[in-house]
Specification:
Blueprint (H helix, E strand, L loop, with lengths): L6 H4 L7 H4 L5 E2 L27 H11 L6 E4 L1 H13 L6 E4 L6 H8 L3 E4 L10 H6 L4 E7 L11 H10 L5 E5 L21 E6 L12 E5 L1 H8 L9 H10 L2 H26 L5 E2 L6 E5 L3 H10 L2 E2 L1 E2 L5 E5 L3 H16 L1
Parallel strand pairs: 1-11, 3-4, 3-5, 5-6, 6-7
Antiparallel strand pairs: 2-8, 7-8, 9-10, 10-13, 12-13
Helix pairs in contact: 3-9, 4-5, 10-12
Length: about 350
């Protein structure tokens, strides 16, 4: 079977998601999931019928939440499918390229490689911001530029003026995609208002993080109506299952949004607890984070990661030297993690 696969697929190293890496324990702070397991009532019927391609109730609900028109919203199987749709719609295999800025989310590269699209990288600066001169120098053949903000795994928000400059330099040349998977934890930093000025801007969103619906696989792309129409040409005919629509609409209801707002505040408090507790440990550097996670550098990140793993505290190793990414979970999970790390360095 391996020999029958496309050459790009044969050479492909799959993305190692938190679930693929696995682990056994009772503290799971490796996948930036919400600690809240909210209950929903399924009210759907007629499951013998296909769902609408873009269910109006869901599209309208998210458009209202995001502050855009319904014509500017596309829903998909998580934001990951949005990444694939953008590459498939705008990049010719063997001719075009995407550009992204590591360290950042790994699926931009994996999706491009799967479709036979070249990957260009322009590393972030030392303070993890966009290197605009280097990006401009590497735009030849680039059709899609991916920027993650807040960035995964570093946790920082990209400078707004830099994003505007990037949009200016890519007009009539490339689509700029701002991945806002974690923006619900810092909505003041969203670029959604720039959609009115830049028709080549696309924004990725998800219900997986702040809405505590990682298992639902429901994401959104916000863009100009013209860009949305292009994506609708390549999306699957029935991308969002009926039960997903039912639960997502409940999450976006008035009551659901009130609960989400409360839980975001709680997670933000727990993130601050993690930051304060870990910052007091000698030799440990905690970087400011704006999502529901922190990037922490230890004297020996691999040793700390393994020791926590063996103790049933599952964290996420990072491409940053000695870096470990730690999700902001429940207060109990955060307290247990801080206590373990403190004892690890006092032993």
């Amino acid at each position: 079977m391996e020999k029958l696969a496309r050459k790009q697929v044969q050479a492909l190293t799959p993305y190692l998601s938190a679930r693929r890496i696995g682990g056994e324990g009772d503290v799971w702070l490796n996948a930036n999931e919400s600690p809240y397991d909210n209950e929903y009532q399924l009210t759907v019927s007629q499951l013998n019928r296909y769902s609408d391609c873009q269910p109006a109730t869901l599209i309208d609900a998210y458009a209202e939440y995001a502050g855009v028109s319904s014509e500017q919203v596309l829903t998909s199987r998580g934001a990951d499918e949005g990444i694939e749709l953008l590459i498939r719609a705008f990049c010719e295999a063997g001719d075009d390229a995407i550009l992204y800025c590591p360290p950042t989310y790994g699926m931009y590269a994996i999706s491009a490689e799967t479709f036979g699209v070249e990957r260009k990288t322009v590393p972030l600066t030392s303070d993890w911001q966009l290197d605009l001169p280097a990006i401009e120098a590497n735009l030849d053949k680039v059709k899609v530029v991916f920027v993650c903000s807040p960035n995964n795994p570093t946790g920082n928000v990209m400078n707004r003026d830099d994003i505007v400059t990037l949009l200016e330099m890519t007009q009539d040349r490339a689509i700029v995609v701002i991945d806002e998977a974690y923006i619900d934890f810092c909505l003041q930093d969203s670029t959604v208002d720039l959609l009115a000025t830049y028709p080549h801007l696309a924004i990725l969103r998800t219900l997986s993080k702040a809405f505590a619906l990682a298992g639902l696989r429901c994401g959104f792309t916000l863009a100009s109506p013209e860009l949305i129409q292009v994506l609708l040409k390549v999306i699957a005919p029935y991308p969002v299952p009926v039960p997903v629509v039912d639960i997502a609409v409940q999450a976006l209801s008035k009551a659901g949004l009130a609960r989400q707002k409360y839980q975001v505040l709680e997670i933000t408090v727990n993130r601050a607890y993690l930051q304060a507790g870990l910052s007091m440990i000698p030799g440990v550097t905690v970087h400011e984070g704006w999502g529901n996670y922190l990037l922490v550098q230890f004297p020996d990140g691999d040793a700390l990661f393994k020791a926590a793993w063996d103790a049933g505290i599952i964290l996420r190793n990072s491409p940053i030297e000695n870096g470990v990414r730690i999700s902001a979970g429940s207060r109990e999970e955060c307290e247990k993690t801080v206590t373990f790390i403190r004892n690890f360095y006092q032993a």
